Amino acid sequence: MFRTWKVMRFCATADISARFYRHFSVCGNAQQKCFPPLFVPRGFRPAGAEMPEQSQPAPVTDVVKREFVECGAEDELLNNRKSIPNLKVSELLKAVPRSKLKRERTSWDELSESTTKPTHKKTPIEKDTLQMLQHRYQDTRESEERYDKQLKVRYTILQSNDDRHRDLMMLVGSRKYREREKQLVLEGRRLIMDGYAAGLRLEAIVTSDLKLLADLKFKHKKQSCPIFLVKRQIMMEWSSLTTSPGLIGIFAEPSNRAELASRNAAKSKRLPVTVVCDNIREPNNLGSIIRSCAAVSVQEVILLKGCAHPWDLKCLRGGAGAHFRVPIYGPMEAYQLPDHTRTGSIFVVADNKKPTDERNGFRWKHYDQIDYGSADHVVLVIGGETYGVSEDIRSFIHQLTQTGEEGGIQDRKFVAHIPLANGIESLNTASALSVVLYEMRRSLLQMEDNS
């Protein structure tokens, strides 16, 4: 309807006589019989079809020009379709200038749009993100070395176009790159100090504020390792935490981690306990488990396939330096488990999934009623919070204990149950392990005192 009104207005203002062969009126049927070629669908009109004679158009006035500019591409198609045989929309649109496809905006349109369209104010997070995107690959400045008189350290202001900037970014973001370069990344003042106290060699320090270096109290001077100063936005991008502590330490990976852990735990007496982790997928939970094992001073920690990687950044932070004080092996396959167990060991599975669970020959008991001193060594198996210890591990433990039971050693497989109240179904994996480990410690130390 709107397009028909435009055509009528065009005829009234131009004051010309034009013959229309297609009307939106009652006489459309009669004209269809008189002029059949015009009512053939577009694209199917024969090339040699005779067209009716058209009257010569009158001179176009200024008013007609103004109305023609206001007309869009669809109106131009309507005006030209009578004189073009085999009309195709795609071919005609190629010849239409782009300026005619948009109507010229008046001052009133600009005023109304400016008043109705709200202006978006960027939040601080959006501003930081925009700065991070802008400074990357656009900074043409070179890195500069400076000296701080107050801290008495020499540092380097690292720019994004420096090769060392790229290496540090790959080192922080890729675990495979760290394993290839044989380096460890520790984030935060406390974790850096724990790694340094454990005997790791510090190779570089990355910070976003030089004042944070005063909190690092090393025995030797900080000048022995390079110090890089980066922008706060880069540190936020590299950090694995929500709030970046502003300090990252790059350490050399020890050649023998088990020897390093044994040397750090030489003063504490180790319990004859091996902790086996089955399907612990959360890095924070695995870090807390390793921390509890180091606090109780177990013999070793074994990770089976399916667990999170022990040297993941989140796992390292959850361990709080415990990775350097207890031997960690794996992740490994289940068939490699006998290489780290001793003959005659008892196996304890910490699982609260089913009450009185005695599948595969396991005896169900409360965690404080198991005789942990009945064998020379204890193997404690703990699983994830969702699925617990898998059936494959239970079957494998059952096969390991078959030969020992024939020799007269009974009750080598137990399911440790932790009683809970208030309708709580289970504890966190690290919390349940801590409860069982400290009961083992109390029972074993009490047995040694009595003997």
From TrEMBL:
<dbReference type="GO" id="GO:0008173">
    <property type="term" value="F:RNA methyltransferase activity"/>
</dbReference>
<dbReference type="Pfam" id="PF00588">
    <property type="entry name" value="SpoU_methylase"/>
</dbReference>
<feature type="domain" description="MRM3-like substrate binding">
    <location>
        <begin position="174"/>
        <end position="248"/>
    </location>
</feature>
<dbReference type="InterPro" id="IPR053888">
    <property type="entry name" value="MRM3-like_sub_bind"/>
</dbReference>
<comment type="similarity">
    <text>Belongs to the class IV-like SAM-binding methyltransferase superfamily. RNA methyltransferase TrmH family.</text>
</comment>
<dbReference type="InterPro" id="IPR051259">
    <property type="entry name" value="rRNA_Methyltransferase"/>
</dbReference>
<dbReference type="GO" id="GO:0003723">
    <property type="term" value="F:RNA binding"/>
</dbReference>
<dbReference type="InterPro" id="IPR029026">
    <property type="entry name" value="tRNA_m1G_MTases_N"/>
</dbReference>
<keyword id="KW-0808">Transferase</keyword>
<keyword id="KW-0489">Methyltransferase</keyword>
<dbReference type="Pfam" id="PF22435">
    <property type="entry name" value="MRM3-like_sub_bind"/>
</dbReference>
<protein>
    <submittedName>
        <fullName>Uncharacterized protein</fullName>
    </submittedName>
</protein>
<dbReference type="InterPro" id="IPR029028">
    <property type="entry name" value="Alpha/beta_knot_MTases"/>
</dbReference>
<dbReference type="GO" id="GO:0032259">
    <property type="term" value="P:methylation"/>
</dbReference>
<dbReference type="InterPro" id="IPR029064">
    <property type="entry name" value="Ribosomal_eL30-like_sf"/>
</dbReference>
<feature type="domain" description="tRNA/rRNA methyltransferase SpoU type">
    <location>
        <begin position="273"/>
        <end position="438"/>
    </location>
</feature>
<dbReference type="GO" id="GO:0006396">
    <property type="term" value="P:RNA processing"/>
</dbReference>
<dbReference type="InterPro" id="IPR001537">
    <property type="entry name" value="SpoU_MeTrfase"/>
</dbReference>
